[in-house]
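Figure 6 in text form: structure in, sequence out.
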């Protein structure tokens, strides 16, 4: 399982660095489906992996520009929302059986993926904006962070849709700004878990291999995306959404059998 986790982390974070989805949205549903690990452990391992990828990917970025004026308040809102979302998740996990928690997470994730997929397919016909209001931006980030932390995914697909809709960013600019936001939210989530003494039981070997996969994915993904234009990044992102929707649907069916 440790080697499998490394390979999943490497592939997921490579895809995440290319498309801006981070990788957690791939790692979590795949490990949910095959690992047998508790939801809290998978979320922690996934978060650490994505954090490592985001640091490497941003350090390696020499292409699309980070729009700090828009992305920083969004990122700060997402970081705060991530803490609130994690708190809500802990309440739900303490009050309901694991199967129920899995059903709720899988259902929300599946609906989110389908909504983002439809947005991306119709992006050319949907009006987009250039939001300058900091309060609106921070509130959008707060909502984004809460949902992402509750789902344990890092927020990538939602980041992409939100950046394109609110700020009219092209695909490659969305990708790097999404990873910038993920860095904030995952750092806040990790520190909250650590300082709050809520670190779940995990295999140190698996964590080390998954972080190594995240670092490798950050290097590989940032190198590959430089060779791709916006059309290719869009197409890649859309295929990833379709794949993730299938995995999430499978997880929902599996968790329903546990309820």
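Output sequence:
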């Amino acid at each position: 399982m440790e080697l499998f986790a490394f390979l999943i982390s490497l592939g997921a974070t490579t895809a995440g660095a290319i498309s801006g989805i981070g990788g957690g949205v791939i790692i979590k549903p795949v490990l949910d489906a095959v690992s047998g690990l508790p939801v809290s452990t998978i979320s922690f391992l996934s978060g650490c992996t994505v954090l490592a990828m985001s640091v490497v990917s941003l350090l390696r970025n020499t292409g699309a520009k980070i729009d700090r004026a828009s992305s920083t308040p969004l990122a700060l809102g997402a970081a705060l929302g991530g803490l609130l979302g994690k708190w809500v998740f802990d309440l739900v996990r303490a009050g309901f059986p694991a199967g129920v928690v899995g059903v709720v997470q899988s259902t929300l994730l599946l609906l989110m993926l389908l909504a983002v997929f439809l947005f991306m397919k119709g992006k050319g016909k949907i009006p987009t904006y250039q939001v300058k209001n900091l309060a609106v931006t921070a509130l959008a980030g707060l909502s984004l962070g809460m949902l992402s932390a509750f789902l344990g995914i890092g927020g990538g697909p939602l980041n992409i849709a939100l950046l394109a809709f609110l700020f009219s960013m092209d695909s490659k600019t969305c990708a790097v700004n999404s990873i910038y936001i993920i860095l904030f939210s995952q750092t806040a989530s990790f520190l909250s878990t650590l300082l709050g003494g809520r670190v779940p039981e995990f295999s140190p070997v698996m964590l080390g291999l998954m972080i190594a996969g995240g670092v490798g994915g950050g290097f590989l993904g940032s190198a590959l995306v430089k060779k791709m234009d916006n059309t290719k990044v869009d197409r890649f992102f859309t295929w990833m959404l379709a794949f993730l929707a299938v995995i999430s649907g499978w997880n929902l069916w599996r968790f329903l059998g546990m309820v």
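Caption detail: The chain is about 80% helix and 0% strand.
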